[in-house]
């Protein structure tokens, strides 16, 4: 008798649990995210990637969730640390797809991790909207993985933007044609160097000093002193955040004054302007935003309110825009069917914080390539065709 | 000249990174894989004191060093002493301590991520020009170098001019014999470990004035410290400082005269040379 009661009880509990679980599954949309929280790229992801996911989830949930076919679905985040390792990232995606069974996956962070996980994300059929990957293989990747969408542009675009900006400065008489060119020796630095050097030479610049340094180098005093000895008019470094900061500080300390000073990733970080204050004025770097755009100003305000920190002035807004694309595509498709959402992404342009984004051929063609600190904001000074709001680059004044 | 001065300043940085590990590994025989995390934690605390309470990192040293001393003493007493007690050979202790401090590394890293986030952090302190023989150098680096010299000098005086220092050195050379002549090996080892932690924290505090750091950067420093400690001769402060200076000058010279891309290669080439010709390190003793 007792046993039968127990059986009944157990069955009821199981049924109830299944029923409530079922109901819950109906009303929430599981979003999976895997990106660095530790490892070499954790610093960049903490500025550019994670805060935007937090902001997006909160925004969508605050207004009642996503409207999917007449139903409001709240977002629930499942997040993993990939330790900046490709293998770990692949394991995370596998887990998100098979164990957590998430409805959608947010792009991983950085070129390397996106490329490492792309085949798996494609195999599971999720839309893959990358917002922090910049590589020249974008057209090839878009073809190989038709579920993937590339929002940040190619390294060629980013590097040629540098040549564009320097040409503008040269034509206005601000600088001559001597350029010192350095790069960090990893995928990003090498790709930009390989695209940037010929672009600069084609534009009529002389490369008077070139060098590459290993990832993780923070003692850049010898690089700056050697570059200074070559007496260039412009200094271009395809660098990563810690070396971006170190190069700037050393240039300032060694009174290395050039008419154009360009450093790589990290220049657009709020911490850059915070640290170098007035001396940041006139420094150019990779990325840029249209600081005059109302939508962007609104986004920056909300980012600060919700996450407690300012976004960077390049990939942060693009990361948020990528999430907006996903959100609008799901709502337009009116279903959580992944294939239908992928088809929807290609159909019509999306209205985002960085302006209208069209992904008909899986690639966003309207990207910022170079920004410059001008009176406290990192304005875009070079961009691909069709991008509004570019400002004219100005000559870098001597370091104080 | 410029290359030499830049190299010496860099060597000073390396000495700061390695001094603590010299004591911990050389005397307490604990291969502390969390030494880089201790360093980065000190960077964060120095930053926090500076940003929130306007405490200059140089004054911060007087808060951070004693705190690190106490924490490391506790770590040694509660976590590592049991390993020391049960280890039958030096090799076994080494393996156990590597595993235990490997765990500590993740604990520290997790705590830092939780408290400070994963973002790059840096602040401006004495980022002014300082002129030496017509060349310009960062004042913060010069100050850190001078502080490193003072700290290394004080440590040298303690180890070579005091009774207790002699006891510590005796433990470094041979713990068993030290025990025979009435030295309290256990407390000397605890002191060395705690002192090592405090030195590492001093290094972090000074480093934070000119380095950009984040919570996951510790392992870079651990690697560098390890190379310097082994090059200098395990447990020898003079050797560690000398090895640090050699590395600093070599790296700067290679970066300036050959190619900045070859600095890592230069480091490892030097390391290999030392291992080939003086496997016991520059000042190390030949094993008998």
Automatic annotation (TrEMBL), chain B:
Q: Superkingdom of the source?
A: Bacteria
GO terms for biological process, alphabetical? amino acid transport
Q: Which UniProt keywords apply?
A: Amino-acid transport, Cell membrane, Membrane, Transmembrane, Transmembrane helix, Transport
Stretches assigned to coiled coil: none
- What's a Gene Ontology MF term here? transmembrane transporter activity
Q: Transmembrane helix: present as a keyword of the record?
A: yes
Q: Where in the cell is it found?
A: Cell membrane
Q: Which GO terms describe its cellular component?
A: plasma membrane
Q: What is its main location?
A: membrane
Q: How does it sit in the membrane?
A: Multi-pass membrane protein
* Pfam families documented for this protein: BPD_transp_2 (PF02653)
Which family is this sequence assigned to? Belongs to the binding-protein-dependent transport system permease family. LivHM subfamily.
UniProt-recorded name of the protein: Branched-chain amino acid ABC transporter permease
The top of its lineage is: Bacteria, Pseudomonadati, Pseudomonadota, Alphaproteobacteria, Hyphomicrobiales
């Amino acid at each position: 008798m007792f046993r039968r009661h127990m059986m009944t009880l157990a069955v009821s509990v199981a049924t109830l649990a299944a029923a409530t679980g079922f109901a819950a599954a109906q009303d929430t949309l599981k979003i999976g995210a895997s990106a660095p929280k530790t490892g070499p790229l954790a610093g960049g992801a903490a500025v550019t990637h994670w805060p935007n996911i937090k902001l997006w989830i909160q925004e969508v949930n605050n207004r009642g969730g996503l409207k999917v076919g007449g139903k409001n679905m709240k977002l629930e985040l499942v997040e993993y640390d990939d330790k900046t390792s490709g293998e770990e990232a692949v394991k995370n995606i596998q887990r998100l797809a098979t164990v957590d069974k998430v409805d959608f996956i947010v792009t991983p962070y950085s070129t390397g991790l996106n490329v490492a996980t792309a085949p798996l994300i494609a195999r599971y059929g999720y839309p893959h909207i990358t917002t922090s990957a910049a590589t020249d293989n974008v057209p090839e990747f878009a073809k190989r993985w038709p579920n993937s969408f590339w929002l940040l542009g190619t390294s060629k675009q980013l590097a040629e933007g540098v040549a564009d900006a320097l040409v503008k400065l040269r034509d206005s008489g601000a600088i001559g044609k001597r350029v010192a060119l350095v790069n960090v020796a990893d995928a990003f630095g090498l790709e930009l160097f390989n695209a940037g050097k010929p672009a600069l030479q084609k534009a009529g610049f002389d490369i008077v000093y070139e060098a590459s340094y290993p990832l993780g180098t923070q003692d850049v005093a010898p690089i700056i002193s050697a570059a200074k000895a070559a007496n260039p008019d412009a200094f271009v470094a395809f660098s990563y955040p810690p070396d971006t900061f170190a190069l700037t500080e050393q240039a300032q300390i060694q009174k290395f004054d050039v008419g154009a000073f360009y450093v790589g990733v990290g220049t657009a970080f709020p911490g850059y302007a915070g640290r170098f204050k007035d001396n940041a004025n006139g420094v150019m770097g990779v990325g840029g935003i249209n600081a005059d755009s109302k939508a962007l100003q609104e986004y920056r305000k909300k980012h600060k309110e919700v996450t407690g920190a300012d976004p960077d002035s390049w990939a942060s807004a693009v990361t948020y825009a990528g999430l907006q694309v996903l959100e609008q595509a799901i709502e337009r498709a009116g279903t959580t069917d992944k294939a239908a959402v992928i088809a929807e992404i290609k159909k019509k342009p999306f209205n985002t914080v960085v302006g209208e984004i069209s992904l008909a051929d899986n690639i966003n063609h309207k990207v910022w390539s170079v920004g410059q600190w001008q009176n406290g904001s990192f304005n875009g000074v070079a961009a691909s065709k069709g991008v509004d709001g570019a400002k004219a680059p100005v000559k870098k004044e001597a370091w104080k | 000249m410029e290359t030499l001065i830049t190299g010496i300043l860099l060597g000073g940085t390396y000495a700061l990174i390695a001094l603590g590990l010299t004591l911990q590994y050389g005397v307490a025989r604990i291969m502390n894989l969390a030494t880089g995390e201790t360093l980065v934690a000190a960077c964060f605390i120095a930053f926090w004191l500076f940003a929130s309470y306007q405490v200059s990192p140089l004054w911060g040293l007087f808060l951070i060093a004693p705190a690190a001393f106490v924490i490391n003493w506790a770590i040694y007493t509660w976590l590592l002493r049991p390993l020391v007690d049960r280890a039958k050979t030096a090799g076994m202790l080494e393996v156990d301590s590597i595993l235990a401090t490997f765990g500590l590394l993740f604990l520290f890293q997790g705590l830092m991520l939780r408290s400070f986030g994963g973002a790059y952090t840096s602040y401006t302190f004495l980022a002014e020009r300082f002129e030496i023989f017509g060349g310009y150098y960062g004042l913060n680096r010069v100050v850190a170098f001078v502080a490193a010299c003072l700290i290394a000098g004080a440590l040298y005086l303690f180890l070579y001019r005091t009774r207790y220092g002699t006891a510590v050195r005796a433990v470094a050379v041979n713990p068993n014999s030290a025990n025979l002549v009435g030295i309290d090996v256990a407390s000397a080892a605890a002191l060395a470990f705690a002192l090592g932690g405090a030195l590492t924290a001093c290094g972090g505090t000074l480093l934070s004035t000119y380095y950009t750091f984040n919570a996951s950067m510790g392992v870079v420093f651990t690697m560098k410290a390890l190379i310097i400690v082994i090059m200098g001769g395990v447990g020898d402060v003079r050797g560690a400082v000398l090895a640090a200076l050699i590395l600093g000058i070599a790296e700067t010279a290679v970066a300036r005269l050959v190619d900045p891309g070859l600095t890592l290669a230069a480091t490892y080439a030097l390391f290999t040379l030392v291992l080939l010709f003086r496997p016991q390190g520059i000042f190390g003793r030949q094993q008998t």
